[in-house]
Write a structure and sequence with these properties.
The complex is a heterodimer. By secondary structure, chain A is α/β, with parallel strands linked by helices. Chain A folds into 2 domains: about 240 residues, P-loop containing nucleotide triphosphate hydrolases (Rossmann fold); about 40 residues, no CATH class. Chain A is built from 11 helices and 10 strands. A 6-stranded mixed beta sheet of chain A has the order 6-7-8-3-9-10, with helices on both faces. In chain A, strand 4 and strand 5 form a beta hairpin. In chain A, helix 4 crosses helix 5. Chain A is globular and about 75 Å long. By secondary structure, chain B is α/β, with parallel strands linked by helices. Chain B has a domain of about 35 residues. In chain B, about 40% of the residues lie in helices and about 20% in strands. Chain B is built from 12 helices and 10 strands. In chain B, strand 7, helix 7 and strand 8 form a beta-alpha-beta unit. Classes of the chains: A alpha/beta, B alpha/beta. Chains A and B meet through helix 5, helix 6, helix 10 and helix 11 of A and helix 6, helix 7, helix 11 and helix 12 of B.
């Protein structure tokens, strides 16, 4: 679905943000991109929807080079939810906000109505339909931005820091939501610093540092490797830290999930009891 | 000694149909490190706006109840007076930064207060150093990444050296190591300089270890208020969906399965220690 071929990107200020990135994301994949501030994460995902074009190398979306297609055409396929919802929201009501892109894409009024109802319901925003986005809390505005993108049903959804300002339950809702989008065959890419959220989602994890990809693969394998994590300024999940601290007792060190942790510890206790 | 005291504090935003905070009564002692948390939209940010006078001086609305901060009745003192006592780092750093260079942004508040030039220089240097952004001194804040901007915003507040500092999700935009470093900085201000810290936070895994007082709000009201171990271990905290630290959660799950631990951990170090004691016994 997205093919990044040896991409370099230099901002007009001279900052070299991407230094030879190659990455292939298949249709229907769920990918999380993590790494320290300034590692190039946001620069990379902005290549996916053509907001930025490579200085060198190429990005193909659904087989089309992003240089050969307008941002508007790309936007239909690749929905982008910004880190800061205030960069995205401008309408007087939540409803208008969601309707805006749909009108631009030329949907019929009846479809627009249906899509708005669907998207607001999905994100628990129905009660705010007639409210100004700017009356809402940070977390709620973030969900309005997400609703407005999902409404036009793009094939790829990019979420830049989706968990900021979201409480624990909303994160859980977001997680289930991503799983649901995934099940519908959508490709989901998130950029995040939220280690605990990633540990719970268990996506394919791409780790970046200084404009390059330093690890790509299974979340559990990467997050439980302290050297790799440190290189990308990641603090391993609390559960992983606990198991690293108990490694000398013969317990595994590749644990990220709390339920899995409980199971392992209970088994360990029973085994020890049996020995006595 | 109480540095913040509210009784029956209730507030509705102008034109709002719903009260944002209802009957909030609390006491925060001088020098405490307080975590204020609760579901999105529960009134955390609104409460913080009361503490520094943005409510009722900027957001007019309807405010009832008693509110005293640093010995002052907030309703009777303008924002600039409150600002010298209560520093607030906003959720979104962009709302706070506007100058052409980081240095100027950090100096701005001090200039407004008429601090002597030499002192301004010293305090700006110190604030930049403490937040680890000395090399950004000449950069324009709007060119920086979200994480860097948040550090600038924190430096601006640090430079004012207020007795109370409120941080509204200050590490949302920071990578985990950066976040950890900021929490350590905040902790140092609290422990070494005795600054009263109020930290509004959803990500409790990194922050809990520093707190000595946790307040949980839900639907505009205070539902839990006490020591971190008691609050996080309470069934109520889990039921209203506060993301209690995973270390605490793991130990709760083990207790439910008959494993007796010597205490309630809020950090991974504590959990490791407690588990080690039982596993070796």
């Amino acid at each position: 679905m997205i093919e990044v071929r040896d991409v370099y990107f230099t901002y007009p200020t001279g900052v070299e943000a991407l230094k030879g990135v190659s990455l292939s994301i298949r249709n229907g994949e769920f990918v999380a991109i993590m790494g320290q501030n300034g590692a190039g994460k946001t620069t990379l995902v902005k290549q996916f929807n053509g907001l930025l074009k490579p200085t060198k190398g190429a990005v193909l979306v659904d087989g089309v080079n992003t240089r050969d297609i307008s941002i508007a055409q790309l936007a239909r396929k690749v929905g982008f939810v910004f880190q800061n919802p205030d960069h995205q929201l401008f309408s007087e009501t939540v409803e208008e906000e969601v309707a805006f892109a749909l009108r631009n894409f030329g949907f019929r009024q009846a479809t627009i109505e249906r899509r708005i109802t669907w998207a607001l319901n999905l994100l628990g925003l129905t009660e705010y339909r007639k409210t100004s986005p700017f009356m809402l809390s940070g977390g709620e505005r973030k969900r309005v931005a997400l609703a407005s993108v999902l409404a036009w049903n793009p094939k790829v959804v990019i979420l830049d820091e989706p968990t900021i300002g979201q409480d624990y339950q909303q994160k859980e809702t977001l997680r289930q939501f991503i799983v649901q989008l995934n099940a519908q065959g959508k490709t989901v890419v998130i950029v995040t610093h939220d280690v605990e959220f990633v540990a719970e989602c268990n996506p394919r994890l791409v780790l970046m540092a200084q404009g390059q990809i330093v690890a790509d693969g299974d979340t559990k394998r990467i997050l439980t490797n302290p050297d790799v994590a440190l290189r990308a300024s990641i603090v391993p999940p609390q559960i992983t830290q606990i198991f690293h601290g108990l490694a000398d007792l013969g317990l595994p060190t590749d644990v990220i999930d709390v339920s899995e942790a409980k199971k392992i510890l209970i088994e360990y206790f029973e085994e020890e009891r049996g020995k006595r | 000694m109480a540095i913040i005291e509210t009784k029956g504090l209730t507030y509705t935003y102008p034109g709002g149909t719903k009260t944002s905070i209802r009957d909030v009564s609390l006491t925060i002692e001088r020098g405490e490190f307080v975590i204020l948390t609760g579901p999105s939209g529960c009134g955390k940010t609104t409460l913080c706006r009361c503490f520094n006078g943005l409510i009722p001086h900027f957001y007019v609305g309807q405010l009832d109840g008693e509110l005293s901060v640093a010995g002052l009745k907030v309703t009777e003192h303008p924002i600039y007076e409150m600002a010298q006592r209560v520093g607030l780092v906003f959720q979104n750093p962009e709302n706070q930064l506007f100058a052409l260079s980081v240095e100027k942004d950090v100096a701005f508040g001090l200039e407004n207060l008429g601090v002597p030039r030499d002192d301004i220089r010293k305090r700006v240097d110190w604030a930049l150093q403490t937040t680890g952004i000395e090399e950004l001194r000449e950069r324009a804040p709007h060119e920086l990444s979200g994480g860097q901007q948040q550090r600038v915003a924190i430096a601006c507040v640090l430079a004012m050296q207020p007795g109370i500092m409120i941080f509204d999700e200050p590490t949302s935009f920071l990578d985990p190591l950066g976040a950890k470093k900021i929490f350590e900085v905040i902790n140092e201000l609290n422990k070494k300089l005795g600054v009263t810290v109020i930290l509004v936070e959803h990500r409790l895994d990194l922050a809990s270890r520093y707190a000595d007082h946790v307040i949980i709000m839900d639907n505009g009201k205070i539902v839990l208020n006490g020591k971190p171990k008691e609050v996080f271990n309470s069934e109520t905290a889990r039921l209203i969906g506060v993301g209690i630290p995973k270390a605490t959660r793991l130990c709760q799950m083990l207790q439910e399965n008959g494993v007796r631990l010597g205490g309630v951990p809020t950090s991974s170090d504590e959990a490791t220690q407690l588990l080690r004691e039982v596993l070796k016994a």
